[in-house]
Design a protein that fits this description.
This protein has nine helices and 55 strands. The protein has about 750 residues and is mostly beta strands. It has three domains: about 400 residues, Methylamine Dehydrogenase, Chain H (7 Propeller); about 100 residues, Immunoglobulin-like; about 190 residues, OB fold (Dihydrolipoamide Acetyltransferase, E2P) (Beta Barrel). Strands 6-5-4-3-39-40 form a six-stranded antiparallel beta sheet, with no helix packed on it. Strands 1, 2, 32, 33 and 34 form a five-stranded antiparallel beta sheet that branches. The N and C termini lie far apart (about 65 Å).
């Protein structure tokens, strides 16, 4: 039967909670810590969307209750006082002691809170920490093998941070605080999907098409005392992995086994036609010498804004999402209620397989969460509080309930009963386990407690031990033996019988294998700290910020920038939603350099060409879409060209022409008008208004050229139009003569 729970599982009845669970973390206590965007998610007062406080709450899934935490997240002001902070849109992951570390948060869309705090689940207390180097909205955090916390990305004032930081706990020789990673800059999207690789590197799976590796060496600090980091770039022997499905905003990645990752869905229609997200699935094994993405079986439903959750048996459950085009399309037929279950590759299938599961009763799209629980069930909650209809309908869109899903394995027999798992274990420790009579255990899965928001689990780690043949009675199991695969902290420990039924998981803490002090290399007494740093790292400096790099690029370029009008599907504008656009522009063959900061107000980006040519806008759109897909569209381009302008008679009309060069053809000049502009207002979803000075620039230039029979050397700026494969025109928005006289103000 189609609804047989042994085949499709079963959704239990929803139960209410006090807010929209935009963020959710399974605590070592077994409760789930959640918070939303604001105190009252049903308010229609727009100013409440930017409240500067958070009211977190604890969900008890066994008793179906919800209570507020004893106090609230705070940050320290300049006087050292604790003040409220909104940790909506923050990054968070667990420290080895079980505290949830939370960095960044919300001032308003695109403006991040400059804060860090921790929640102690055992004392039910929030504590403020030293602030990071900038406000961070939509950052990602990851627990490193040494137990410290890496934070990447996050935006403030429309500019994405390109400088990673590491929070380290206090040591004998160093107080707690932030270390800024000494590494060249690397552009990052918001909420990058971070995973630990088995070799200890940090793997950025997306959402951009090209994955990244960050090689961190925290044991060898640069001269300023910061850890050395290196972003790996393309080299012939080590080509960076590229997902064939391209840039995939709001797809979901999950670690389904040690070092093995699956990417599901996301993005919009390939080719940029504004259609639905993809159903494509890709997998990568970071244990390989040269890991590369490869296709897996696609999902039945295309979807974005969904959640992918790894289950104890190594399968991956995908829940929620929308299957229509756009950022978070909630129109009829958009939200996907049917869950899907992916079985990893085995001896019969290299791509794995998908199966449709039972359907959830609620929409679970943007701002939804999903968490594996110790019972083997999956919690699904949230959805709403932004990114929905143009006119918000809180009662319909903001969901304040929880629904639990019982996977098929919970209907294949009773759950094994085990004992003997200690609360604290060391790496590689043998554990004496007792299992109830008559049960045989075939697999032990260590799954790190989940910490989920925005279609991403920031606290992922999976380690498996399989028994051939199965074990029964009393036997030894082994704790994870590699901190690169399983960083220190709390794990659910599932014991699965030969039918694949998992036990209720005890929660065990893997202790750090060594203290941070013990991992610091011992320096000979005769050497200084600077001498102890390898020669090739002594000149290493902390990466410069995107604003500083932006200024450097402008000063270094010999030709003016080409201005590219880009419209993102993301509603927050081109500044916050910049990562995939940057990568897409870099994929255009004519482009040599992309400035790291776009113009958020006018939704335009700035690039520099390899040669002085006339770019083919049709080719640019095709090459750009091959990487960015439907997450952005190119409205047009604006160029600044220099040369001799002459007036020619064409029939009864007189036209202005800019002379060609050895690398580009001559260009017809035409008047600039309202429909010419590539500047765009994201709030009004309409072109920016034009000025009389701009629309009159062509006439002003024509009056000057009319008196210059031999023409005049002029620099002209305006949108470039393609007439045919070899003919171009430019709508004159402003011009500058060689004597410095110009019309209209130039762009920043």
């Amino acid at each position: 039967m189609a609804d047989d729970p042994r085949k499709v599982g079963k959704w239990l009845d929803p139960f209410p909670i006090d807010n929209v669970a935009v963020h959710a973390s399974l605590l070592p206590t077994g409760k789930v810590l959640c918070w939303g965007r604001r105190t009252n998610p049903m308010s229609v007062i727009s100013s409440t969307m930017d409240e500067h406080k958070t009211v977190p709450f604890l969900v008890d899934t066994k008793n179906k209750t919800c209570v507020y935490t004893r106090d609230r997240p705070t940050q320290l002001d300049n006087a050292g006082n604790r003040v409220d902070v909104n940790v909506f849109c923050s990054g968070h992951c667990f420290q080895p002691n079980g505290n949830l570390f939370v960095v960044g948060g919300h001032l308003q869309d695109g403006f991040g809170a400059q804060q860090a705090c921790v929640y102690d689940p055992f004392r039910d207390e929030w504590a403020a920490k030293t602030i990071p180097n900038s406000g961070r909205w939509y950052p990602s955090s990851l627990t490193l093998p040494d137990g410290n916390v890496l934070t990447i990305s996050g935006v403030h004032n429309g500019v994405i941070s390109n400088v990673p930081q590491i929070w380290h706990e206090g040591q004998i020789s160093r107080p707690e605080g932030w270390l800024t990673v000494s590494t060249p800059e690397a552009q990052s999207a918001l909420y990058p999907r971070l995973h630990l690789a088995p070799n200890g590197m940090v793997f950025v799976a997306g959402p951009q098409a090209k994955s990244q590796f960050l090689d961190l060496d925290t044991s060898v600090p640069a001269p300023a005392g910061n850890p050395v980091g290196t972003w790996l770039t393309d080299v012939p022997a080590k080509k960076l992995p590229v997902r064939d499905a391209g840039e995939r905003q709001y797809g979901s990645s999950a670690t389904y086994d040690g070092g093995k990752i699956i990417w599901t869905g996301g993005g919009n229609a390939e080719g940029g036609d504004g259609g639905p997200p993809t159903s494509r699935t890709e997998i990568i094994d970071l244990n390989d010498t040269n890991p590369q993405w490869r296709p897996a079986m696609p999902m039945t439903n295309p979807r974005r804004q969904h959640n992918a959750t790894t289950l104890p048996d190594g399968t991956v459950l995908v829940t929620g999402g929308t299957q229509l085009g756009g950022f978070n399309n909630l129109e009829t037929g958009g939200p996907v209620h049917t869950a899907e279950l992916w079985n990893p590759p085995d001896g019969t299938s290299a791509e794995g397989s998908w199966a449709a599961m039972a359907s959830e009763s609620s929409d679970r799209c943007y701002h939804s969460v999903a968490l594996l629980l110790p019972s083997g069930e999956v919690l699904s909650a949230g959805s709403g509080e932004g990114g929905g209809p143009a006119v918000p309908d809180p009662l319909r869109c903001n969901l304040t309930n929880v629904q639990l899903y019982r996977p098929p394995y919970l209907f294949n027999g009773k759950q094994p009963i085990i004992s003997g798992v200690p609360q604290d274990v060391k790496y590689g420790q043998n554990i004496s386990i007792t299992v109830e009579q008559g049960e045989s255990i075939a697999r032990v899965s260590w799954i790190r407690l989940g910490s989920v928001t925005h279609a991403m689990n920031m606290n992922q780690a999976v380690w498996n031990q399989k028994f051939m043949p199965a074990r029964s009675g009393k036997f030894d199991a082994q704790a994870p033996d590699n901190r690169n695969v399983a960083p220190p902290g709390h794990y659910m420990v599932f014991f699965l019988n030969t039918k694949g039924v998992p036990s209720v998981a005890p929660i065990a803490k893997i202790l750090p294998d060594k203290t941070a002090e013990e991992r610091t290399p011992t320096r000979p007494a005769s050497t200084t700290a600077a001498d102890a740093v390898p020669l090739n790292l002594r000149s290493r400096r902390v990466a410069i910020s995107n604003p500083t790099r932006n200024k450097q690029i402008i000063s270094e370029q010999k030709r003016p920038a080409v201005v590219v009008g880009l419209t993102p599907v993301c509603p927050y504008g081109l500044g916050p939603c910049w990562g995939g656009a940057s990568e897409g522009l870099k994929s255009i063959k004519d482009v040599a350099v992309v400035r790291p900061i776009p113009d958020q107000v006018n939704s335009v980006a700035f690039v520099y060409l390899k040669e002085d040519i006339m770019p083919d806008i049709d080719v640019w759109r095709k090459e750009f879409a091959g990487s960015a897909n439907g997450s952005y569209s190119i409205r047009g381009i604006e160029m600044t060209l220099s040369g001799v302008v002459t007036m020619k008679r064409v029939g009864a009309e007189r036209v202005l022409t800019l002379a060609g060069t050895t690398t580009r053809p001559e260009v017809d000049l035409k008047p600039y008008h309202a429909s010419s502009t590539i500047d765009w207002n994201m709030e009004t979803q309409a072109p920016q208004p034009v000025t009389a000075l701009e629309t009159g620039a062509y006439a002003s230039l024509a009056s000057i050229i009319a008196e210059q029979s031999a023409g005049l050397a002029v620099e002209v700026t305006g949108p470039l139009q393609k007439q045919d494969t070899k003919k171009f025109s430019l709508d004159v928005r402003r011009f500058r003569k060689t004597d410095g006289i110009n019309t209209t103000s130039s762009r920043l």
